[in-house]
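User: Please check token order:
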Amino acid sequence: MSLERTFNNDSRTARFVVIENGSIDAWNGIPPALLSSTLGAMVDYVRAEDRVPVLTGPSNVAQFPGSFLPVLGAAGRAQFEVEVKKLAVDKHVAFADWGSVEFEGAADVPDGIHPRTAYSERLALRLAETLDMLAPECAP
């Protein structure tokens, strides 16, 4: 939740503000409701700036022996995903749903967390598809 401490002080000029924040907090056991509340405040602030918020939700992670992922990792991510999906519905925010992007486990995240190029590209494509729905005039 370190980003939320300075979020309201940052200068933004873009039409869309993509928020992918809180995954590490979720893995570290911050209560999902607190994460949702923080993201909700960020969404409200983006709207107050007359910009369009977009939530990605957390990307997938993989727990396996020797992975960098904390023990709470996958469970914390799943709890956070439930909260951010509910927030997107409740606040009528575009949601890229990174959790539903094709995921091949440890092959996509060899340390448990950080995606290889192919998975990063699939996540970026999902975000681009979400933005295209919001701005069809920009779609290819």
